[in-house]
Design brief:
It is a single chain. The protein has 14 helices and 22 strands. It has 468 residues and is an alpha/beta fold. The protein folds into 3 domains: 208 residues, FAD/NAD(P)-binding domain (3-Layer(bba) Sandwich); 112 residues, FAD/NAD(P)-binding domain, CATH 3.50.50; 112 residues, FAD/NAD-linked reductase, C-terminal dimerisation domain (Enolase-like, domain 1, 2-Layer Sandwich). The strands form 5 sheets. Strands 1, 2, 3, 4, 5, 6 and 17 form a 7-stranded mixed beta sheet that branches. The chain has a 5-stranded parallel beta sheet with strand order 8-15-9-10-11. A hairpin with a 2-residue loop joins strand 4 and strand 5. Helix 1 runs parallel beside helix 9, helix 3 packs antiparallel against helix 4 and helix 3 runs parallel beside helix 6. It is globular. The site of flavin-adenine dinucleotide has 37 residues, from helix 1, strand 2, helix 2, helix 3 and strand 4.
Length: 468
Amino acid sequence: MAYDLVVIGSGPGGYVCAVKAAQLGLKVAVVEKRATYGGTCLNIGCIPSKALLHASEMYSHAAHGMDSLGIEGLAPKLNLAKMLGHKDATVKSNVDGVAFLFKKNKIDGFQGTGKVLGAGKVAVTSDKGEEQVLETKAIVIATGSDVAGIPGVKVDFDEKVIVSSTGAIALEKVPENLIVVGGGVIGLELGSVWMRLGSKVTVVEYLDTILGGMDGEVSKQFQRMLAKQGMDIRVGAKVTGVEKTKSGAKVTFEPVKGGEATTLEANVVLVATGRRPYTDGLGLAEAGVALDNRGRVEIDGHFQTNVPGIYALGDVVRGPMLAHKAEDEGVALAEILAGQAGHVNYDVIPSVVYTQPEVASVGKTEEELKAAGVAYKVGKFPFSANGRARAMLATDGFVKILADKETDRVLGGHIVGFGAGEMIHEITVLMEFGGSAEDLGRTCHAHPTMSEAVKEAALGAFFKPIHM
Ligand SMILES: Cc1cc2nc3c(=O)[nH]c(=O)nc-3n(C[C@H](O)[C@H](O)[C@H](O)COP(=O)(O)OP(=O)(O)OC[C@H]3O[C@@H](n4cnc5c(N)ncnc54)[C@H](O)[C@@H]3O)c2cc1C
């Protein structure tokens, strides 16, 4: 049977594109080499990590956080196997959900490795080695990303002692010591999980700051908060070796600016230095599909590669490696393939770090505005002046709104604090509609809520906050 669309990869980019295309009347097939749908995000990424972040946070609260609320004497006992079971059950219900969506939308699923034979043809090879060729009007490459190592350093991942994020969500024992190489989102989230469960965690980061690329003020404050929680963070440190030892592994690093090397030992080392676009075995070179100098599939403004009829989206193309960016691209591309006008606004893509407290951001950072020579104004409001935050003992952190000095249009929003990942969306919607700090500051917010701090920060950018 000939398809309108064959999608290779069933992560958030691929499955959402398939569902949307089917909803718009296209005949769709999805090829997935993993045993379950949902890609990195649902199987080994966003979803399992959030299940563990939530469970470990509850544990940590019960163990340390309730005395000041008058709840004393809690002595929680960790059942790690059960916690991992909760994570696995969460993954299962999510990947089953994608299978249900495929069935509901009459999408044909093919389990096997997809290879592009050229425009209009995809070969699928099953685990048993059986091959079939699917014919289609359009091909979407949505093969995502894979773990990247450390440039210039040989890392032998065994996923038990030297682990990637995949091993770090499945450790069978809480390591006494954990070294995390890379102070980005994934390293800090998974480092937090094991720290809450009892590990002594050391983070080694190449840049001068953790969460490189985030607003500088936010990442500085966040680093202080993590240090207060007990995380040992070494910035400006270049890792030169990761090796197994008799009792675990050791990491050697030296100051980026030059100086003496340090070697630390731990039971487990998590290498979380980023991800690379995944195009292995796809046959792109033979099919003439061009990659850029970072190995990403090159696309135009309509997601089309240099070969007509072959498209790509998600982690395998340019832009932030985020599930919701991939999803929005999936929707836009399906609309384009169905003859509609699909579009993604790359200026308004939120990003969230699901630690405690959370960090969330959308739009430009102060550093980016400065570098671009944009005249801007800043409104900031601390949670320590917010009634609900005081009631919840969640006063750490602040909201920061950046607005154009002339027009008052909101250009960026940054939050570090409890619930930041939910609160960021009101700034996101406002920015999508081209709203101003005054619009946000004059919008009635329910009292008492953490979100009132967003309103107050906007008031601060526009004129003055009331409660400070
Ligand atoms: C630990 C971790 C936590 C994360 N947390 C978050 C988060 O909280 N929020 C967020 O936004 N992002 C998060 N991410 C990133 C997110 O997972 C990715 O941005 C997202 O999965 C990208 O979606 P995708 O569809 O492009 O690719 P993927 O989800 O990587 O899916 C690609 C799929 O293609 C399949 N595939 C590859 N090659 C072939 C082939 N030749 N034939 C058939 N199938 C193939 C793969 O098996 C895979 O299932 C996290 C990532 C990790 C690792």
